[in-house]
C-alpha cells in the first residue's frame, strides 16, 4: 500500500478549509472572549441598551485597573468601542462584531 502524494491528499481531504486570514481573525475573537472576566464584561455590554461607563461595571472579582485592561483587550479585538468623556470612559459593543463568528460556528454545525 502506498501513501498518496501530498498534493493528492490535500485534494481529497474531506472537510472545510479555513484560510489563514480568517483563522487569525476568528482566533482573535475567541481568545478575547475565552477569559471569564472579559466574557462577563462583553455580555454586559452586548446586552445593554446604552453605553456603559467604566465606573458602572458591577464587581467582577478583579480590581478596576484589571477591568480596564480587559476592556482594552476587547477593544483591540474589535468587540467593543470606547469614548472618553472627561475623566470617564464609556463602552459599547460593536454592532455585528460577532456576526462572522456566529456564521462560522453555524456553518460548522450545518
Structure explained in plain terms:
This protein is α+β, with helices and mostly antiparallel strands. It has a domain at 36-109: Winged helix-like DNA-binding domain superfamily/Winged helix DNA-binding domain (Arc Repressor Mutant, subunit A). It is 52% helix and 13% strand. The chain has five helices and three strands, in the order H-H-H-E-H-E-E-H. Helix 3 packs across helix 4. The longest helix is centred in the first third of the chain and has 14 residues, at 20-33. The protein is elongated, with a radius of gyration of 19 Å. This is ArsR family transcriptional regulator. GO terms for molecular function: DNA binding; DNA-binding transcription factor activity. It comes from Luteipulveratus halotolerans. Pfam families: HTH_5.
Topology:
Blueprint lengths: L5 H7 L7 H14 L2 H12 L4 E2 L10 H13 L3 E6 L2 E6 L5 H11 L1
Question: Residue share in helices?
Answer: 40-55%
Radius of gyration: 19 Å
CATH topology type of the domain at 36-109: Arc Repressor Mutant, subunit A
Give the termini separation: 35 Å
What's the oligomerization state? Answer: single chain
User: What gross morphology would you assign?
Assistant: elongated
Largest β-sheet summary: 3 strands, antiparallel
CATH superfamily grouping of the domain at 36-109: Winged helix-like DNA-binding domain superfamily/Winged helix DNA-binding domain
- The largest beta-sheet arranges its strands as 1-3-2
* Number of extended strands: 3
Order of helices and strands: HHHEHEEH
CATH class of the domain at 36-109: Mainly Alpha
> Structural class of the secondary structure composition?
alpha+beta
Q: Strand-residue fraction?
A: 5-15%
| Overall pLDDT score | 86
Low-pLDDT runs of 5+ residues are none
The CATH architecture of the domain at 36-109:
Orthogonal Bundle
